[in-house]
Amino acid sequence: MALDEDALNIDIMAPRFRSGEDRGRWRLKDFKWPYLFVTVFARDGLGFTLRLNCAGYPVDPPTGTFWDCENDGVLAFPSWPKGSGRVTASLRTDWQNGAALYIPCDRVSIHGHDNWRSVYPSMIWNPKRGITQYLEIVHDLLHSRDYACAETTNS
Amino acid sequence: MSKRVYIQSEMLPDIRLIEVEETVDSAGLMALCIAELPSESREEEVFLFLEDATDELPAGAKLIELTEEQGVHIHVHRCHHIKVTVRFGGRTIEREFRPGITVGTVKKWAVREFGMPPPDAAEHVLQIVGTSDQPDVATHIGTLAPYPKCAVAFDLVPSHRVQG
Predict the structure, then answer these.
(1) Closest CA to A86 of B131, B120, B109
(2) How large is the average pLDDT for residues B84-97?
(3) Which of A51, A115, B84, B140 has the highest count of CB atoms within 10 angstroms of its CB?
(4) Same domain flag for B55 and B94
(5) Which of A23, A103, A145 sits opposite B162 (nearest CB)?
């Protein structure tokens, strides 16, 4: 097993990840290297599954998007979490055609945004925090004032 | 039947997980938690707290009597209390909490004290004074306030809206 795959395996078995599952914040759905599928739960109880490409983990940040597991593709845009403010700023369907979330700990989105390192230091990828950092940020967005109930769920 | 016990402590670099029989009492749980601490810390006097509880784990109580949850969150600390300070809008508030209180619970207290409406409160986070660290809501404040200082200070700041 490659080092990055091994490291991710360790982190999804680690107490920090499992604690989030026991708290009902997220749930591991599937793991097909280099992809990790995790359902993150919003404040209205709806679940949104992320597909996270974790190649190079944990040195390189993951990159993720909302995924439709039944159709094995990016979740149809009308089914993405809806809202305003922080939610629409980060969960953008017009960024990378929905292939990556617009958050500083995303491998694709940080590219070309070096200013984010000083503007959003707490959201910059930290290998020590690992995959739960990404999940905590998405969970926070789905529990923010700016999140509005979605019409459908893909959990 | 067993339960998953998640341990946070100022003496541990990260959360630890142990599987514990639900019939274990507080003394037994204390022994199991101490065994998870670094060897140099095992002789210290420590106290055990259930997450967000207002008191120590009651003596003699069995784990099954304390919570129905399958995952139990425990805190081990050398202090009885943590002095918490929060600054916002030129005001400073302060009170003592048990070490097992979460950052999320401290924030709820702070926004109430500052008179912030709930919709606005959801858009603010606690940031450790003098840093850019914004601990996750599930973090026990005891992990941020090691013995003997047993104190932590936060600024209440707006959540980041990513742009640019």
Answers:
(1) B120
(2) 98
(3) B140
(4) no
(5) A103
Q: How many domains does chain B have?
A: 2
Q: Is residue B164 part of a domain?
A: no
Residue A154: inside a domain, yes or no? no
Residues from chain B contacting residue A18 (CB–CB below 8 Å): 4, 6, 17, 71
Which positions in chain A touch B12 (Cβ < 8 Å)?
none
Phi then psi for residue A60, to 5 deg, are -90, 140
What is the domain extent for residue B25? 2-77
This model's pTM is above 0.90: yes
ipTM: 0.93
Q: Is the C-alpha dihedral spanning B157, B158, B159, B161 positive or negative?
A: negative
Range of the domain at A144: 3-148
